[in-house]
Design brief:
CATH class of one domain: Mainly Alpha
Structural class: mainly alpha
Number of helices: 16
Largest sheet: none
Shape: globular
Oligomer: single chain
Number of strands: 1
CATH architecture of one domain: Orthogonal Bundle
Distance between the termini: 56 Å
CATH superfamily of one domain: MetI-like
Helix content: 55-70%
Length: about 375
C-alpha cells in the first residue's frame, strides 16, 4: 500500500522542483519601503513619529485658515469680516499690480504677448515630441529678445513708450531671471574655459573676476552696478537702472556658473581629450564636440540649482529701487485699506516662486533620467 511520502517522492531520475515561496512581507512592497525609509532605526522612528505629530496639528490648522474659513470673493476688506480665515480678496483686488507693477493698464497686452510667447516657445523647444525644436530655440536666442525689448519698451512702430521704472511685479521678476539665466550660462562656460586656459593673461583675468565676484554678496554687486558702473561712462550719459541690475545679476551668476562648469570639465577623463587629439581635432572642436557635452551633462543638477537660486535672488533688486513681485506685495500691504494682510500677500508670492522653482527642478530630474547622469541602483 503506497503512503503519502511515496506519492510525493519523485520517480528515479525525475526532478520535481518545489514551488516558489512568496517573499517576506517586509522585504518588498509598500511595507518594505515604509520600514526602510521611515522606521529603519530607532532615531528614524522617532523623527517619523515627531513629523506625523506635527502634521497632525499643523495641516488641519492651515487648511482651516487657507481654505475652510477663508474668503475668496469680494472687492473690499469688509467682505472678509464674517470669516476668521485668510482674506484672499486682498490678492484678488491687487493681482494686476502683483503681476504688472505700474505698467500702464492699456499697454499690458504687450507684456502678456511677451510672457506668453516666451513661455510657450520655451515649452515647445523643451518638448522632444515637437518638430522644428531647433528653430524655435534659435528664435528664443536671437529674434525673441529684440521683439520683447520693442514690445515692452515701446517708442517705435507706433507703440507708446513705457519707462522701465514702471515695470514691476512678476513681469520684472521674469525679465531679470530670464536675462540672468540666459547670460550666465555662456559667460560661465567662457570663464571656466578661461580659468583652465594655458594663456597666463586670460587665466589670471578669469580667476580674478571669479574670485572677486564670489567673495562679495549680490547686494554689493547690485550697488556697484547701480552706483559705480555709471562712473565709467561719459559725463551726461543716461544709464537705465534696470539695465544696471541686469548686468550685475548676470555677472554675479556667471561667476558661480563658471565654478560649476569647471567642476564638470575636471570630471571628464583626460583620455577624452587625448583621443580627440589623436583624431586631429583642434582645441575648439574638442571642447564643442567632446568635452563640453559631457561636462555639462555631469553638472546638470548644479546648473539648475544655480538657476533656481538666481530666480529667488531677483527679489534683492528692491534694494536699488526696482519693484519686483515681493516689493509689489510689500507696497500693497502698506495701503491703509489692507494693513494686517501681509500673510496672504507673502503666501501668494511664495506660491508663485514655488511653482517656477519646482518646475525647474522637475525638468532637471527629467534630464538626469534621460541622459543617465543619476546614480542607478
Amino acid at each position: 500500500m503506497a503512503t503519502a511520502s511515496d506519492i510525493d517522492r519523485p520517480a528515479a531520475g525525475e526532478f520535481r522542483p518545489k514551488p516558489d515561496q512568496p517573499p517576506p512581507a517586509l522585504s518588498v512592497g509598500p511595507l518594505a519601503w515604509v520600514k526602510r525609509n521611515l522606521f529603519g532605526s530607532r532615531f528614524d522612528s522617532l523623527l517619523t513619529l515627531a513629523c506625523l505629530a506635527a502634521l497632525y496639528y499643523l495641516v488641519p490648522a492651515v487648511w482651516r485658515w487657507a481654505v475652510a474659513e477663508a474668503t475668496f470673493v469680494g472687492d473690499s476688506r469688509e467682505a472678509c469680516a464674517p470669516n476668521p480665515g485668510a482674506c484672499w480678496v486682498f490678492v484678488n483686488v491687487r493681482i494686476e499690480q502683483f503681476i504688472y507693477g505700474f505698467y500702464p493698464q492699456a499697454e499690458r497686452w504687450r507684456a502678456n504677448v511677451v510672457v506668453l510667447l516666451g513661455l510657450g516657445s520655451l515649452t515647445y523647444a523643451l518638448s522632444e515630441a515637437m518638430p522644428w525644436r531647433k528653430w524655435v530655440a534659435l528664435f528664443l536666442i536671437l529674434p525673441y529678445p529684440v521683439l520683447a525689448y520693442i514690445l515692452l519698451l515701446g517708442g517705435m512702430f507706433g507703440l507708446p513708450p513705457v519707462e522701465t521704472r514702471l515695470w514691476g511685479g512678476l513681469l520684472l521678476t521674469l525679465i531679470i531671471a530670464s536675462v540672468g539665466i540666459s547670460a550666465s550660462l555662456p559667460l560661465g562656460i567662457a570663464l571656466a574655459l578661461g580659468r583652465r586656459s594655458k594663456m597666463p593673461v586670460i587665466q589670471l583675468l578669469s580667476i580674478g573676476f571669479i574670485e572677486f565676484v564670489r567673495a562679495v554678496p549680490l547686494i554689493t554687486v547690485l550697488f556697484m552696478a547701480s552706483v559705480v558702473l555709471p562712473l565709467f561712462l561719459p559725463p551726461g550719459s543716461n544709464f537705465d537702472q534696470l539695465l544696471r541690475a541686469l548686468i550685475g545679476v548676470s555677472l554675479f551668476a556667471a561667476a558661480y556658473m563658471a565654478e560649476v562648469v569647471r567642476g564638470g570639465l575636471q570630471a571628464v577623463p583626460k583620455g577624452q581629450t587625448e583621443a580627440a587629439a589623436a583624431l586631429g581635432l583642434g582645441y575648439w572642436s574638442t571642447m564643442r564636440l567632446i568635452v563640453l557635452p559631457q561636462a555639462l551633462r555631469y553638472v546638470i543638477p548644479a546648473i539648475v540649482s544655480n538657476f533656481i537660486g538666481l530666480f529667488k535672488d531677483t527679489t534683492l533688486v528692491l534694494i536699488i529701487g526696482l519693484s519686483d513681485l515681493l516689493q509689489m506685495v510689500k507696497l500693497a500691504t502698506t495701503d491703509s485699506k489692507w494693513i494686517g494682510l501681509a500673510t496672504e500677500g507673502y503666501a501668494f508670492a511664495g506660491a508663485v516662486f514655488f511653482v517656477f522653482c519646482f518646475g525647474m527642478s522637475r525638468y532637471s530630474l527629467y534630464l538626469e533620467r534621460k541622459l543617465g547622469t543619476g546614480y542607478r541602483r
